Task: inverse folding
C-alpha cells in the first residue's frame, strides 16, 4: 500500500480523498494555488505545497510544478480527483516515468476512451449499442451535409476531444449545418486544442443514465449500478440520483452487462463510469466513458454502502476486486450547490461567505470545502457543495432533501439552493417524468 499520496486537485474532492487516506493510514500532500491558500484541503492534509498563481494553467494544470511537489515530499502516488489532469494521458505517463503511481487507468486506456471516435469504434467491436453516426472525423461542411441528409435531421455535431457541452451543436435543418459546423470546430479548437468534429443522430428527449464500473489489474470487472443524471443545464449536471426512476429491472440488468462489456473491452483498471443515452422507448446507446472518479460518486456510495475512493486506491496498489455486481439498496438524490445566481441566468457569484449553516440529521450527507469567512475564488468551477439525501424510497429521499435545503444557509454569495428547493416541489420531477430537456422548460419563481 502507498505511504504518501499527493492529491493533484482542490476543493471538496481533495478533502474527500484526504478523509479516505486518513482512514487507510496513508499520509497526504495537498497542492494549492495562491488563491486557495486558506482552503480546507490545505489545512486537513499532512503536508501542503503551493504550486503557483491562481490561474489553473499556472497551478492545477502545471505538470512540472505538481511533479516537483511530489518529488520534494516523497509522495509515491498521485490521485488526480476529477477535472484538471484526471483524464490527461500525458500526465499519467509522466507519473510512470518518475516511478510515481497514477491512481487511475493507464495512459493507453485514457486515450482509447478520451477520443470519442476511438471509443465508439471500441464499443462497436465489443458489441455495445452506439448512436448511429459518422465513422470518422468530418473533414468538410459538404461531408457533414451529405451525412446529415442520409441519417435524417436532427443531428448533433460533437468535438472528438470534448466534454461539458463544448464543441457541441444540435442541427435541426440543412440551412443550419454550415454555421454549426464552423462554430463547433472553432469552439473545440479553443477548448481542447483539437478541432476534430464528428456527427451523431440526435436522440430527442433522452435520459442520461450512467453506470459505475470498477476493474482491477487482473482482468476482473464489475458494476455498481446506475445514476440518473438527466437533470442538467447546458450539458452540465445539476441533480443526480440512484436508482433511476426510469429503469426497469430488466433494463438495469442489460445496461449493467453492457457497461461491463465496455470496460472489459479495454481491460479497464480503476473506477470509471460508462455513460448512456436512453430514448423514450428504453433503447440505450453508449455515449462516453469517464476514466476517473465522478463528481456524483457519493450517490452510488450511499445506495450500496461502499467507499469508491478506497476501492480506487486499492486497485492502484494491485489489490484485486471481488467482482461482485451491485444493485441499489437505498434511494439517494444529490443536489449540486453552485455559487451562481439562478435568477440571473446562473451567473457565477464568487465572494466571501459571511454566514454558513450546514444541514445535517438522519439521511443527509454534505461534501463541501466551504466555511464562514471562506472566499470563493473566481478562477475555478463554481460548485461549492454537494448535498445527498438518502432514504428507503425516492419519495422519502425528496422529502429529506427538501428539509435539508430549507436549513442550508449560505450568505454573502448567491447560490443555486432556491432552484433546487423549487425543483424538489415540481410534480413532474417528483413523478420521475423528466428528460435532459426538462430544465429548458422549468420556470424559476
Result:
Amino acid at each position: 500500500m502507498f505511504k504518501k499520496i499527493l492529491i493533484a486537485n482542490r476543493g471538496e474532492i481533495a478533502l474527500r480523498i484526504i478523509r479516505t487516506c486518513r482512514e487507510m493510514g496513508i499520509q497526504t500532500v495537498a497542492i494549492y494555488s495562491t488563491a486557495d491558500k486558506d482552503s480546507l484541503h490545505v489545512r486537513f492534509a499532512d503536508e501542503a505545497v503551493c504550486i503557483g498563481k491562481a490561474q489553473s494553467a499556472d497551478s492545477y494544470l502545471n505538470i512540472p510544478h505538481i511533479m516537483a511537489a511530489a518529488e520534494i515530499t516523497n509522495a509515491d502516488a498521485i490521485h488526480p480527483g476529477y477535472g484538471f489532469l484526471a483524464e490527461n494521458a500525458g500526465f499519467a505517463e509522466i507519473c510512470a516515468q518518475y516511478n510515481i503511481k497514477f491512481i487511475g487507468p493507464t495512459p493507453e486506456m485514457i486515450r482509447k476512451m478520451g477520443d470519442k471516435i476511438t471509443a465508439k469504434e471500441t464499443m462497436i467491436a465489443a458489441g455495445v449499442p452506439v448512436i448511429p453516426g459518422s465513422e470518422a472525423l468530418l473533414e468538410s461542411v459538404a461531408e457533414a451535409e451529405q451525412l446529415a441528409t442520409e441519417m435524417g435531421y436532427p443531428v448533433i455535431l460533437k468535438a472528438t476531444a470534448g466534454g461539458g457541452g463544448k464543441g457541441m451543436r444540435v442541427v435541426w435543418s440543412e440551412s443550419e449545418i454550415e454555421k454549426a459546423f464552423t462554430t463547433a470546430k472553432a469552439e473545440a479548437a479553443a477548448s481542447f486544442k483539437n478541432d476534430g468534429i464528428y456527427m451523431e443522430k440526435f436522440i430527442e428527449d433522452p435520459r442520461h443514465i450512467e453506470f459505475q464500473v470498477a476493474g482491477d489489474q487482473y482482468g476482473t470487472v464489475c458494476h455498481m449500478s446506475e445514476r440518473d443524471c438527466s437533470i442538467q443545464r447546458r450539458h452540465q449536471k445539476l441533480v443526480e440520483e440512484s436508482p433511476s426512476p426510469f429503469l426497469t429491472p430488466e433494463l438495469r440488468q442489460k445496461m449493467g452487462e453492457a457497461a461491463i462489456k465496455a470496460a472489459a473491452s479495454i481491460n479497464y483498471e480503476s473506477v470509471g463510469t460508462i455513460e448512456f443515452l436512453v430514448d423514450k422507448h428504453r433503447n440505450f446507446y453508449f455515449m462516453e466513458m469517464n476514466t476517473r472518479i465522478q463528481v456524483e460518486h457519493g450517490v452510488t456510495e450511499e445506495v450500496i454502502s461502499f467507499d469508491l475512493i478506497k476501492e480506487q486506491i486499492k486497485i492502484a496498489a494491485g489489490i484485486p476486486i471481488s467482482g461482485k455486481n451491485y444493485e441499489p439498496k437505498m434511494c439517494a438524490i444529490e443536489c449540486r450547490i453552485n455559487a451562481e445566481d439562478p435568477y440571473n441566468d446562473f451567473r457565477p457569484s464568487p465572494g466571501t461567505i459571511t454566514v454558513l449553516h450546514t444541514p445535517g440529521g438522519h439521511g443527509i450527507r454534505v461534501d463541501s470545502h466551504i466555511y464562514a469567512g471562506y472566499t470563493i475564488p473566481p478562477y475555478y468551477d463554481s460548485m461549492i457543495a454537494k448535498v445527498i439525501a438518502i432514504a428507503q424510497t425516492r419519495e422519502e429521499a425528496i422529502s429529506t432533501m427538501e428539509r435539508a435545503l430549507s436549513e442550508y444557509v449560505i450568505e454573502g454569495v448567491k447560490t443555486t439552493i432556491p432552484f433546487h428547493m423549487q425543483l424538489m416541489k415540481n410534480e413532474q420531477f417528483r413523478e420521475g417524468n423528466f428528460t435532459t430537456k426538462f430544465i429548458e422548460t422549468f420556470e424559476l419563481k
Remarks:
- The chain has three domains: 4-103, 132-201, 207-441.
- Residues 130 and 220 are 24 Å apart (CA to CA).
- The mean pLDDT is 96.
